[in-house]
């Protein structure tokens, strides 16, 4: 080495002056030619949280400790690659399931609609057997898409797995997410699951539904907190806290804001831990499994190919935000039923990030980042403030609280739509870089579902519905109940574009 001594203890920081935050602000403003730092360089989120341009140790933000729960059948995977199953025809849905599991999926989400308009036309326990034919259900976690009718669909699953003698070795999440009038079904359904299905879960803290109605991040998280507390209160008179915790999971939306998703998922973990702490849960019992579901609201109908980019950012944020299950919607979802190609793209994104990009080699990779820690803390505090307002108005199921959150979400949605329409908020393929001659994306045709006759499951409790399901009764051919209507961020502008280009 030419006689030179090599110093293996390099101290680069000693070559730079320390400086202060105020000095940095002064130099930054000098480049703005008279503009104020806050006006030129600081952006506000939809929740009014200051974002950037730089965060440093001067903020003295407390680090957010992230812990994750036990999740069955991960088999050394960092998360479950979930897949949506929603083709109305049972035979085709079964083919989708087998193709997905052979193609890298490790968990299933069943979207049931007895009418067949928006999901699988399941109506009897034999339909469940046909749907899951060839699936090793003891190794594949199965979830129902969160909904207000899942306490009814539970009868079909219970009848099927009881007949097969598999109630003890299947992992099913019923994801019952009741509207106000369905809250009386929470306790009896949870009691039945606790007694007969040791690895099943009953309830979904379905915050993703708020996102799909137009909620901001803080509104979605406030709803999460309010729902979680409401469920605990509903069950606490008859069950201990650990049993209650074992009966729930969380559903959060993941949109095109990759780093925003990281912040939101970390803030969600912090809120969940804080709530369980307030109920005196020990530290190891302050977590819940989190299902990340890519946003339907963010998807473009006019330019579906741009949705591949949105899905990539969505999945990236969910992974780095430490989601336990990730469900990526097909990029063609706004158009109709997904083809096997579109389904493969949804799985492939996750598998590439897992096996090629190795994104999950470090748990909570944002830990210690000034930006992510500061914004996680700010978002959690904003959501907590909204949650406290909901509590003051009677809690999640109270009419005043429901009206308050609906009004807040509606205002946020209208503000967002205006920003997209006037170009303040950029959306590729929607209000920027648009094309009138976009190559069509293939979808599968919506099939006609035959009418079926038979005795209808109409018992008022889970035990009665199970007896009827075992006897071959049918679910009523009615669509799933919607607690809050879903919206699309680009509906107005894409409708206008479609009329202009002759696509209406």
Account of the protein in words:
Residues 115-448 form the Methylmalonyl-CoA mutase alpha/beta chain catalytic domain. One of its GO terms (molecular function) is cobalamin binding. One of its GO terms (biological process) is propionate metabolic process, methylmalonyl pathway. This is Methylmalonyl-CoA mutase alpha/beta chain catalytic domain-containing protein. With 504 residues, the chain is of the alpha/beta class. It has a domain at 80-421: Alpha-Beta Barrel (TIM Barrel), CATH 3.20.20. Helices cover 41% and strands 9% of the residues. It contains 16 helices and ten strands. The protein has helices spanning 21-30, 37-41, 90-102, 125-131, 150-164, 186-196, 208-212, 217-235, 241-246, 258-278, 307-320, 340-355, 370-392, 399-421, 462-470, 491-501, and strands at 43-44, 50-51, 80-85, 107-110, 142-144, 172-176, 201-206, 248-254, 290-294, 325-327. The longest helix is centred in the C-terminal third of the chain and has 23 residues, at 370-392. The radius of gyration is 24 Å and the shape is globular.
């Amino acid at each position: 080495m030419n006689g030179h001594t090599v110093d293996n203890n390099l101290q680069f920081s000693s070559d730079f002056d320390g400086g202060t935050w105020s000095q940095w602000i002064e130099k930054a403003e000098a480049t703005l030619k008279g503009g104020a730092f806050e006006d030129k360089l600081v952006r506000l989120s939809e929740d009014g949280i200051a974002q950037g341009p730089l965060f440093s140790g001067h903020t003295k933000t407390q680090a957010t400790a992230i812990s994750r729960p036990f999740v069955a059948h991960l088999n050394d995977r960092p998360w479950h690659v979930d897949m949506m199953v929603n083709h109305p025809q049972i035979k085709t849905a079964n083919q989708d399931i087998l193709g997905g599991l052979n193609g890298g999926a490790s968990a299933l989400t069943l979207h049931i609609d007895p009418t067949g308009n928006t999901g699988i036309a399941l109506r009897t326990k034999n339909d469940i057997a046909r749907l899951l034919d060839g699936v090793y259900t003891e190794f594949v976690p199965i979830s129902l898409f969160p909904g207000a009718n899942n306490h009814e669909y539970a009868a079909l699953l219970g009848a099927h797995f009881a007949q097969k003698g598999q109630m003890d070795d299947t992992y099913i999440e019923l994801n019952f997410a009741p509207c106000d009038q369905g809250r009386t079904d929470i306790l009896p359904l949870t009691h039945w699951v606790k007694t007969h299905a040791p690895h099943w879960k009953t309830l979904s803290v379905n915050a993703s539904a708020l996102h799909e109605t137009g909620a901001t991040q803080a509104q979605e998280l406030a709803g999460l907190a309010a729902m979680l507390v409401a469920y605990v209160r509903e069950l606490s008179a008859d069950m201990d806290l650990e049993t209650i915790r074992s009966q729930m999971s969380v559903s959060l939306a993941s949109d095109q804001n990759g780093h925003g998703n990281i912040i939101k998922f970390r803030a969600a973990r912090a809120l969940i831990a804080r709530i369980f702490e307030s109920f005196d849960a020990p530290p190891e019992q302050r977590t819940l499994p989190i299902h990340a579901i890519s946003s339907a609201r963010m998807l473009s109908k006019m330019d579906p190919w741009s949705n591949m980019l949105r899905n990539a950012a969505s999945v990236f944020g969910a992974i780095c935000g430490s989601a336990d299950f990730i469900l990526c919607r097909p990029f063609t979802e706004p158009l109709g039923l997904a083809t096997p190609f579109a389904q493969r793209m949804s799985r492939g994104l996750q598998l590439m990030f897992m096996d090629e990009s190795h994104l999950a080699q470090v748990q909570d990779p944002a830990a210690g980042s000034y930006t992510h820690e500061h914004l996680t803390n700010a978002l959690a505090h904003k959501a907590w403030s909204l949650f406290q307002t909901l509590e003051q108005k009677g809690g999640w199921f109270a009419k005043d609280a429901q009206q308050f959150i609906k009004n807040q979400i509606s205002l946020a949605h209208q503000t967002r739509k205006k920003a997209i329409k006037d170009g303040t908020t950029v959306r590729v393929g929607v209000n920027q870089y648009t094309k009138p001659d976009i190559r069509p994306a293939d979808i599968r045709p919506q099939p006609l579902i035959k009418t079926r006759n038979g005795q209808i499951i109409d018992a008022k409790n889970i035990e009665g519905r199970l007896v009827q399901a075992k006897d071959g009764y049918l679910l009523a051919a009615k669509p799933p109940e919607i607690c809050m209507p879903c919206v699309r961020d680009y509906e107005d502008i894409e409708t206008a574009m479609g009329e202009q280009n002759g696509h209406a």
